[in-house]
């Protein structure tokens, strides 16, 4: 593991240029792309262009931009790890999640493509794709409506951020000749996107 971990909270759509002010880009050995934002659960005919753009800018375009910023020094060193946090929604769609799911299909496609693009350059590209994780995700999706957000996890045991972090750490701690290209990580109470056992 790296000696220094620098967690940065940036609005990726507006503040990405600030990254080089906060940290020496050439010193970064592990990049964790953990942007994930959904807006609402409306069907495609009822979604807004503003919501589509926000989801694509956050979940896809910012991920590409930050990766391109850090890749030159990783390529020069012939070492580095890129971890893209996707979603089960990048494998399975569900009603009311078409735009969000399409962004996560993009994340999965980028992860697979970058593995091919960077082959032979000493860089691992890892995809971690969780199912339901109890974070602020649902609160953001429902624009601060805590009751709706809590209902998402009611009667089931979701993953925690620590569960995902543990899986990510395991992937990174493996010897460098091993690359976890894709890990689908689900709560025991979830069998598919939108298919959940509740008590």
Fold and architecture overview:
With 199 residues, the chain is of the alpha/beta class. The chain has a single domain (28-188), classed as Rossmann fold, CATH 3.40.50. The chain is 40% helix and 13% strand. Strands 1-2-3-4 form a four-stranded parallel beta sheet, sandwiched between helices. Helix 3 (98-117) links the parallel strand 2 (80-85) and strand 3 (123-130). Helix 2 (49-77) packs parallel to helix 3. The model has no long low-confidence stretch (mean pLDDT 93).
Gap from first CA to last CA:
40 Å
What are the secondary-structure elements, in order, as H or E? HEHEHEHHHEEE
Please name the CATH topology.
Answer: Rossmann fold
Strand content bin: 5-15%
Biggest pleated-sheet summary: 4 strands, parallel
- Radius of gyration (Å): 17 Å
Poorly predicted runs: none
CATH superfamily: NAD(P)-binding Rossmann-like Domain
Number of E-state strands: 6
- State the helicity in percent bands: 25-40%
The figure for the number of domains is 1
Quick take:
The chain is α/β, with parallel strands linked by helices and 199 residues long. The chain has a single domain, classed as Rossmann fold, CATH 3.40.50.720.
Attribute tags:
alpha/beta; Rossmann fold; 6 helices; 199 residues; 6 strands; two-stranded antiparallel sheet
What layout of secondary structure does this protein have?
Elements: H1 19-22, E1 30-33, H2 49-77, E2 80-85, H3 98-117, E3 123-130, H4 137-141, H5 146-153, H6 161-173, E4 183-185, E5 190-192, E6 195-196
């Amino acid at each position: 593991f790296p000696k220094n971990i620098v967690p940065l909270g940036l609005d990726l759509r507006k503040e990405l240029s600030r990254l080089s002010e906060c940290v020496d880009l050439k010193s970064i050995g592990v990049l964790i792309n953990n942007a994930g934002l959904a807006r609402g659960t409306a069907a495609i005919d009822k979604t807004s262009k503003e919501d589509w753009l926000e989801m694509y800018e956050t979940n896809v375009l910012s991920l590409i931009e930050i990766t391109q910023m850090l890749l030159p020094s990783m390529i020069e060193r012939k070492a580095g790890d890129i971890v893209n946090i996707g979603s089960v929604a990048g494998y399975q769609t569900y009603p009311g999640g078409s735009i969000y799911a399409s962004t996560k299909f993009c994340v999965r496609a980028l992860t697979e493509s970058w593995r091919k693009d960077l082959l032979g350059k000493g860089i691992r590209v890892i995809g971690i794709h969780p199912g339901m994780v109890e974070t602020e995700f649902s609160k953001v999706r429902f624009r601060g409506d805590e009751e709706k957000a809590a209902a998402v996890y009611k009667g089931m045991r979701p993953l925690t951020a620590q569960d995902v972090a543990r899986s990510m750490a395991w992937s990174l701690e493996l010897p460098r000749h091993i690359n976890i290209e894709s890990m689908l990580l689900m709560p025991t109470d979830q069998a598919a996107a939108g298919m959940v056992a509740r008590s």
